[in-house]
UniProtKB/TrEMBL annotation:
Gene symbol of the encoding locus: zwf
Organism: Marinobacter fuscus
Domain Glucose-6-phosphate dehydrogenase C-terminal, first and last residues per copy: 189-487
E.C. numbers: 1.1.1.49
Protein name in the entry: Glucose-6-phosphate 1-dehydrogenase
Taxonomic lineage: Bacteria, Pseudomonadati, Pseudomonadota, Gammaproteobacteria, Pseudomonadales
Domain Glucose-6-phosphate dehydrogenase NAD-binding: 13-186
HAMAP family: G6PD
Domain of life: Bacteria
């Protein structure tokens, strides 16, 4: 395979021994090596707090790669070649003087510099300042930061200000890993490469939209982080609102980062405020109790390791979101996301309005709506549910609904679907910002989410319990049923 950039990069990875780095980032970098996308001479400096030598860290990383790369994609020789690029530096990120070693490592090498902060967000400002005062970075350095940026609008502004004191916006690559998923990028292709949909994509033709991001896992040992965040900060503020933006935005003038981000921001600005008296009909929050997932018993949220038994943090959220603009007036977007649901499944359903005048037997009217089902994960693909005549002499003009089906793995057999982090790291190396989130997007998303959280605090109502292995509190079903609709289930 061809090396597509030939750009030599030095990647400084802060937090290199943390969960994200070991589980996602190193496996993604390994895959770039396997695809021959890392230029010869590109290097990685793994930086973390543990005392260790480079050889010891390389061995540890090899172990982790064996664990986290699919066996069919793991090649010991490629892994060893890849690890030759890695050096290790033990550094307390707050130790300003220690940053001199970064310059020594850079030495006279002229590679482009990427700094990846896979650390708690409270460290972003510290690292940025220390990099600057030690002259380890310049106006060409690209800086990758992880979500969440803060826990509300105010704290996100502080973090963004700290980063902004050292770096320009065009140097900052804020990760929302959903934007790195192939199927999420495909939303842009689907909407703007197919005129068929472009002309149908508004309140004249669409009755409502569903966005479901279901996880079967719980909090995976991350109580300390998750209990302060909850599902609304962990998933809605970023991933679900980004999906909503990609579905709802107007066509961008081109594929440049700012054209796309400008359109997403317009959607975020137009989100209708959820006032306290709308909470009952527009918002459901839940917390899982013990139950069974795929035949296995699992503990409730309050029985997880490290749990504080009195916690009222939500692990499930359902929302009815309205967009106050010309295109989407009167079209609700129903969002739901939760942990310990029956299966891992992310999908978007576009429900089209029925034909304006109905000429078939009225007992079939419930079949009348076309639906576009976009499966983000797993079983990536899409299906357009259309109505056809039921075949047979005895059927008359009876209708039935069937799918025009596109399953990516079957239709495009040879394509391996890369992990989101592979795509995102690759785009950083090329300097493309279009899959990363601009400061104003983060802040408008917080502004909207903050008012929902504030309403929760004011009402003092605890989250509704749901058994693990179910689709969340029954109130989430009631929320959509009240509007004469239901969450889509494939029959
Ligand atoms: N893990 C995940 O799946 C996801 C993580 N993220 C985000 O990615 C970032 C990293 O998360 P994650 O990997 O889970 O976190 P971890 O706590 O596992 O890793 C953070 C790393 O940073 C190190 N660190 C923290 N403070 C210092 C310091 N002062 N000096 C040196 N090292 C320090 C920690 O070292 P030590 O171990 O010694 O404390 C640890 O190795 C966070 O912002 C998180 O929100 C986002 C999406 C998913
Ligand atoms: O950002 C996060 O995402 C994961 C879900 O990501 P996915 O790619 O597996 O769908 C979630 O489990 C985690 O809590 C959250 O921080």
């Amino acid at each position: 395979m061809v090396n597509q950039t030939n750009t030599r990069c030095d990647l400084m990875l802060f937090g290199a021994l943390g969960d994200l780095a070991q589980r996602k980032l190193f496996p993604a970098l390994y895959q770039l090596e396997r695809a021959n996308l890392l230029a010869d001479g590109s290097r990685i400096l793994a930086i973390a707090r543990s005392e260790a030598g480079t050889d010891e860290v390389r061995n540890k990383l090899l172990e982790k790669l064996r664990q986290h790369v699919k066996p069919a994609e793991f090649d010991e020789n490629i892994a060893n070649d890849f690890l030759q690029r890695v050096d290790y530096l033990c550094l307390d990120f707050a130790d300003q003087e220690g940053y001199q070693v970064l310059n020594e490592w850079r030495d006279a090498v002229n590679n482009e510099l990427i700094v990846y902060m896979a650390t708690p967000p409270s460290m972003y400002g510290v690292i940025a300042r220390n990099m600057k005062s030690s002259q380890c970075c310049n106006e060409h350095t690209r800086v990758v930061v992880e979500k969440p940026i803060g826990h509300d609008l105010e704290s996100s502004k502080v973090i963004n200000d700290e980063l902004g004191e050292v770096y320009n916006e065009n140097q900052l690559f804020r990760i929302d890993h959903y934007l790195g998923k192939e199927t999420v990028q495909n939303l842009i292709a689907l909407r703007f490469a197919n005129n068929l949909f472009a002309s149908q994509w508004d309140q004249n033709h669409i009755s409502h939209v569903e966005i479901s991001v279901a996880e079967s896992v719980g909090i995976e040992g991350r109580w300390g982080y998750f209990d302060k965040a909850g599902q609304i900060r962990d998933m809605v503020q970023n991933h679900l609102l980004q999906l909503l933006c990609l579905i709802a935005m107007d066509p961008p003038a081109d594929l440049s980062a700012d054209s796309i981000r400008d359109e997403k921001v317009k959607v975020l600005k137009a989100l209708k405020r959820i006032t306290p008296n709308m909470m009952e009909t527009h918002v459901v929050r839940g917390q899982y109790t013990a139950g069974t997932i795929m035949g296995k018993p699992v503990p409730g949220y309050l029985e997880e390791d490290g749990a504080n038994r009195g916690s009222e943090t939500e692990t499930f959220v359902a929302l009815k979101v309205e967009i106050d603009n010309w295109r989407w007036s009167g079209v609700p977007f129903y969002l739901r996301t939760g942990k310990r649901l029956p299966e891992k499944m992310s999908q978007i359903i576009i429900h089209f309005k029925p034909a304006p005048h109905y000429i078939f037997d009225s007992d079939q009217k419930h079949l009348a709506n076309n639906k576009l089902i976009i499966r983000l994960q797993p079983d990536e693909g899409m299906a357009l549910k259309i109505l056809t005549k039921d075949q047979g002499l005895d059927k008359g003009m009876r209708l039935r609904q069937g799918p025009l089906e596109l399953t990516f793995s079957e239709t495009f057999e040879s394509d391996r679907i890369p992990d989101a982090y592979e795509r995102l790291l690759w785009e950083v190396m090329k300097g493309n910002q279009y899959l990363f989130v601009r400061r104003d997007e983060v802040e408008y998303a917080w502004r909207w989410v903050d008012q929902v959280i504030q309403n929760w605090h004011d009402s003092d109502e605890p989250p509704k319990r749901y058994a693990s292995g179910t689709w969340g509190p029954v109130a989430s079903i009631a929320m959509i049923t009240r509007d004469g609709r239901s969450w889509y289930e494939d029959a």
